[in-house]
Amino acid sequence: xxxxxxxxARAIAAWLxxxxxxxxxxxxxxxxxxxxxLAWSLGSAGVYVFFIISGxxxxxxxxxxFGQRAAPADFLRRRVIRIVPLYWLxxxxxxxxxxxxxxxxxxxxxxxxxxxxLSFIPYSADGGWYPILPGxxxxxxxxxxxxxxxxxxxxxxxxxxxTIGAVLGAFIIVGPYFAQGAVAYLxxxxxxxxxxxxxxxxxxxxxxLTEPAWVAKPARLLEPFGDASYSTYLVHGLVLTALLRxxxxxxxxxxxxxxxxxxxxxxxxxxxxxxxxxxxxxxIITNLWSPKRETAAVLKLPSLNLTSxxxxxxxxxxxxxxx
Length: 323
What we know:
With 323 residues, the protein is mostly helical. It has twelve helices and no strands.
């Protein structure tokens, strides 16, 4: 069952991140500026909310699948379909924009940088650990969490949740000893927010909690923005960069109005990308890469000749659980 307030929280998290980056245009990222500190606080809160929701959702959609043999592969297939295509498109678009229109982060990126970015492998660039699409740093943590979670799906539910927590906890402790490379970077306490979400989901299901109507009703108003939050998150950096350049050409330096205007423009861009790019791409790839299609392909092998069997018409693959 869909939990509406989670989608509303996704929308708010995306807007917090957009606000963060819009405020930084005002402060020019000056470390001693109160605006910069406010921006960092809002952006961090947005990322933490995203991670908590991610941990919650992974347990929620997998609640009845822990310990099932096919669960890990099916889980990873769904996560790849959901995350990878749009991220790849956004990364290539960012690289093209950096190369052709403005010399910002990623302008000097080469094929190796692109390969690392598309593989969700952190690498050091411009004094930080940022892929070509700067916001993609959070997805590096997401993909790591998905791999650990998929391994946990091989275990019974009660043991799985504890084991995933123990593995991530141990990784945080041991990881920093791997010099200052990608492993040390990924071994950040920030992954504990995933565990918080998992714990909340376990409580939600064990207590058989449901979403109150007085929460669900207003949350539905934000649901379309929550559905588009992934698109908003991925495209807002490019959109705000273009907006700032237009703003400077027309009105000079950025003013406080850049914040609400950025929120509106980024939201519209996110909704448009969600409807015109994300949803069609997801639909196409899901249809091409589905257990049902793979089963049908096997059944059509000439050597099996199952079509002549009286029972062949009755063979149907069971659809996976929604998620």
